[in-house]
TrEMBL record:
Belongs to the glycosyl hydrolase 74 family. It comes from the Bacteria. SUPFAM superfamilies: Oligoxyloglucan reducing end-specific cellobiohydrolase (SSF110296). Keywords: Carbohydrate metabolism, Glycosidase, Hydrolase, Polysaccharide degradation, Signal. GO terms for molecular function: hydrolase activity, acting on glycosyl bonds. This is BNR/Asp-box repeat protein. It comes from Sphingomonas aurantiaca.
Length: 737
């Protein structure tokens, strides 16, 4: 070794160490977490359920925004199949197709709407691992018409051959098990093209392949395709593997749902609209293999006004001639299910002799009435191995019966173990009482005394379908306030409620009337409500901010607080509230329990304090106060996070390199959804934001559809995460369990 080599060697080593230590290539630290769904028990719209014809006890469920599930008959629960998926659009499932010969193979068409990516997903191990093939045609897994189908069909005689009916671009075909796709140019409906914003096409609503028209290893020759776009023809048939097509006569309605039985008979549910809402009427038709059709619509449905349509259609391979249909949008008499065992000549109304046991999912009573037969019923299936085992999906659950017979009562129970398919708007973990309070879309919200049991509904008086904001009193956590909106036009005098017993019972908070009498600003649910640390003061961010110090009996305008500006209570000092005046770029403080606010001369904040992300009534607050100490504030501005420990006089950066989307506070820690080192995920800091560690992993991504994150003020390390479609989760450090 020369003297020169000895001289440069330690210098080079030092430089290499510096590059390794400080370079951006170092991956973020990961802390293993254990993630568990906060149990509700389904909760959202599942457009269809499909049994595997290849194996008894195997079924798949597709949802409109929460991905797909597989029923594991050994574990007796539904298993989510896309928790490792990080592409939001792929959580909207347009269609699902289990291989009719090999029970391990399953295909999915995934794409949320016309403006987002779409793909065909293929699995050879029942959905544990997916191969993703992006496709040029758009889908609408969460658009109108998502109850149609199935659009994806496998030729049972040559299972590498698939067809897909697209919404906007006609019929497509794959001859290599979904790896590549080409358009069927001979199909007479080329499609209407990708729609303009907020416009939906029904397109090719279903594809049904006749297994009797082919043989083992020989492609099936007869293919049916239903059309749900305007036009004179809504059903086509090919008898030469799709080379040529002919129109088939039928009603002047959209061909929405089509299934083919073991004899080659096609059953079609027709609808006047795309649904799942706004359908006026429909029909059921039966087509023999030669193409002759007849109307077999249940007579009792016609006798009750012919309201709604038939998006549920199912047949039994074990009992030819046995068919079931279900209605959607039959509001006056309620949706129901009809069963025929003689090829549709006569029908029996099953709904009138049905009973439902919802004791394991009591949340279904959330509207203050008993569980009815259900709404938005578009998924209906008969077990191919047991004609008495029938399941149907609704806008909130999946029901199943193991004894659907021609006469006698029928008992239905929710078939939902493992399914959590809800849209979470907001979460709060109070300093006492139940560990979690939730605000959901469509389901109001709940007090979760036990995170592993479906909650009983208590968010009443008023009942609001969507809970948009929740707050609790830091020193008196049994005091809870909430605001929300109602998606149905029902009479009401309040859009806010107060509870003094931890959310078990409520009283309405009635505000002074504001705005146009036809659209009362005090009733629209847009405005968050806050409560002081002792529960005595409430402030509402209406267009003219209001304060009450007597439980909501009397209200007065707040001085110095701009309208539509959320107030945030100090969780330990009842006199103090904070707010962000975005227009002037100022932090405001009240030291007189909300009577008045004044600007602070804060140091360390950027000039732009506009909150990041979604705006409007469902947006999370960009300002939070620590649950355990006075004067500690956290503020999000853009993708940056700032912290103050002196009541907002000075702020320091608490973000490091993390680009924050959402954040929440817990005991001795802060949690965030954001991106660090090119990795988007869920993060935790235990040192006031100086450093961050990742706490999710590549098996827990949930489509990246995050809505809210909140820590637990009583349990260190505990975090709650609300998603848009996969429900709410609670996470704990893995070593703590």
């Amino acid at each position: 070794m020369t003297r020169m080599t000895r001289f440069w060697r330690p210098i080079i080593a030092t430089l290499l160490m510096a590059l390794t230590t400080h370079g951006s290539a170092r991956p973020p630290e990961v802390v293993p977490y254990h993630w568990t769904n906060v149990k509700v028990g389904a909760g959202g719209y599942a457009p269809n359920i499909v049994f595997s014809p290849a194996e008894r006890g195997l079924a798949y469920l597709r949802t409109d925004m929460g991905g797909a599930y597989r029923w594991d008959d050994t574990a007796r629960r539904w298993l989510p199949l896309q928790d490792g998926n990080a592409t939001p659009s792929y959580m909207g499932i347009e269609s699902i197709a289990p291989d009719p010969r090999d029970p391990d193979i399953v295909y999915m068409a995934a794409g949320m709407n016309a403006g987002q990516p779409a793909a065909i997903l293929r699995s050879a191990d029942r959905g544990r691992v997916w191969r993703v093939t992006p496709v040029p045609f758009a889908m609408g897994g969460n658009e109108d018409g998502r109850g149609f189908g199935e659009r994806l069909a496998i030729d049972p005689n040559q299972t590498r051959r698939l067809f897909f009916g697209s919404r906007h671009d006609g019929l497509w075909r794959s001859d290599d098990a979904g790896a590549t796709w080409s358009k069927v140019t001979a199909f007479p409906v080329a499609g209407l093209g990708r729609p303009a914003w907020r416009r939906t096409h029904g397109g090719v609503a279903f594809v049904a392949i006749d297994p009797m028209s082919g043989g083992a290893g020989k492609p099936s020759r007869r293919i049916w395709a239903g059309i749900a776009d305007p036009g004179a023809v809504h059903l086509y048939r090919s008898d030469d593997e799709g080379e040529t097509w002919g129109a088939v006569a039928g009603p002047a309605l959209l061909a929405a749902k089509g299934v083919i039985d073991s004899r080659g008979v096609l059953w079609v549910g027709y609808a006047s609209g795309l649904g799942p809402s706004g359908i006026a009427t429909g029909a059921v038709w039966r087509y023999d293999p030669g193409g002759r059709g007849r109307d077999v619509t249940p007579r009792t449905w016609r006798q009750t006004g012919a309201e709604g349509a038939f998006l549920g259609v199912a047949v039994s391979p074990m009992a030819p001639g046995t068919v079931a249909v279900s209605t959607v949008d039959r509001y006056r008499h309620g949706d129901s299910l009809w069963l025929s065992r003689d090829d549709g000549r006569t029908w029996n109304d099953v709904g009138t002799r049905s009973r439902r046991d919802v004791s394991k999912t009591p949340f279904l009573l959330h509207e203050g009435k008993g569980a009815d037969f259900g709404h938005w019923i578009s998924g209906l299936a008969i077990d191919p191995f047991d004609p008495t085992h029938v399941a149907y999906t609704t806008g909130a659950t999946v029901y199943a019966s193991r004894a659907l017979r021609a006469t006698g009562g029928v008992d239905w129970v929710p078939w939902t173990e493992g399914i959590e398919q809800t849209a979470v708007i907001t979460l709060a973990s109070p300093t006492g009482g139940a560990p979690l309070l939730s605000g959901f879309g469509d389901l109001a919200g709940f007090v979760h005394d036990d995170l592993d049991r479906s909650p009983r509904p208590t968010f009443v008086n008023p009942y609001m379908s969507n809970t948009n904001s929740i707050d609790y009193a830091g020193l008196a956590p049994n005091v809870i306030v909430r605001s929300g909106s109602l998606y149905l036009d029902r009479p009401r005098q309040a859009s806010m409620g107060r509870s003094d017993d931890g959310g078990r019972t409520w009283t309405e908070i009635v505000l002074p009337p504001m705005g146009n009498p036809a659209r009362r600003e005090d009733l629209n649910g847009d405005w968050p409500i806050s409560v002081s640390a002792d529960g005595a003061t409430m402030i509402v961010a209406t267009p003219v901010a209001q304060v009450s110090r007597d439980g909501g009996r009397l209200w007065s305008a707040v001085r110095g607080l701009p309208g539509k500006t959320r107030a945030v209570a100090d969780k330990r000092d009842p006199r103090i509230f904070y707010a962000v005046d975005v227009g002037r770029g100022k932090l405001l403080v009240s030291r007189d329990a909300g009577v008045s606010f004044a600007p602070l001369a804060s140091h360390g904040l950027p000039a732009d304090l506009a909150p990041l992300g979604r705006q409007g009534r469902e947006a999370q607050s960009s300002l939070l106060s620590a649950p355990d100490r006075t004067g500690t504030l956290w503020l999000q501005a853009g993708t940056q996070l700032f912290r103050s420990s002196d009541g907002g006089i000075s702020f320091v950066s608490a973000t490091d390199r993390l680009k924050v989307e959402l954040f929440g506070l817990g005991r001795n820690g802060v949690f965030a959804v954001g991106t660090l080192g090119g990795v988007r995920g869920v993060w935790r800091s235990m040192d006031a934001g100086r450093s961050w560690v990742r706490i999710d992993d590549d098996s827990h991504r949930w489509g990246g559809r995050y809505r809210v994150v909140s820590g637990d003020p009583r349990r260190e390390g505990r975090v709650y995460l609300g998603t848009d479609g996969r429900g709410a989760f609670y996470g704990d450090p893995a070593k703590a369990r």
